[in-house]
Specification:
Blueprint (H helix, E strand, L loop, with lengths): L1 H27 L6 H30 L2 H27 L7 H8 L1
């Protein structure tokens, strides 16, 4: 059971890494990628590295049976994931096209 959860955790890092890489590739394929978005991607990569480091430490604490530290590391990893999620939502919200009243009404009907 413990190994399955840890495997899923590291698998989720792989998924996140692929998503970040895809976003970086998409931006780099633009003729003039926005520097602020590239900075966001860089921060996401740094956060992912920190999550992997925390997860490796978590494995050590789990093998020692130090469940308080395991729980603490899980909270830290989840908090970092929430940071990426919330920031990405804000970034994406900034790219939504502004609709006039007629367009909004048409979408709602």
């Amino acid at each position: 059971m413990k190994q399955t959860i840890i495997k899923r955790l590291f698998d989720s890092f792989g998924e996140l890494e692929r998503a970040i890489h895809s976003a970086r590739t998409t931006l780099n394929n633009k003729s003039n990628p926005p520097a602020d978005l590239l900075e966001h991607i860089k921060v996401y990569e740094e956060i992912l590295d920190k999550q992997r480091s925390l997860a490796t430490a978590l494995c050590g604490y789990a093998s020692l049976g130090d469940w308080n530290e395991v729980a603490r590391h899980v909270r830290l990893i989840n908090g970092l994931s929430a940071m990426i999620r919330d920031d990405a939502r804000e970034v994406l919200a900034g790219f939504r096209p502004k609709l006039n009243a007629d367009e909004r009404e048409m979408m709602l009907s």
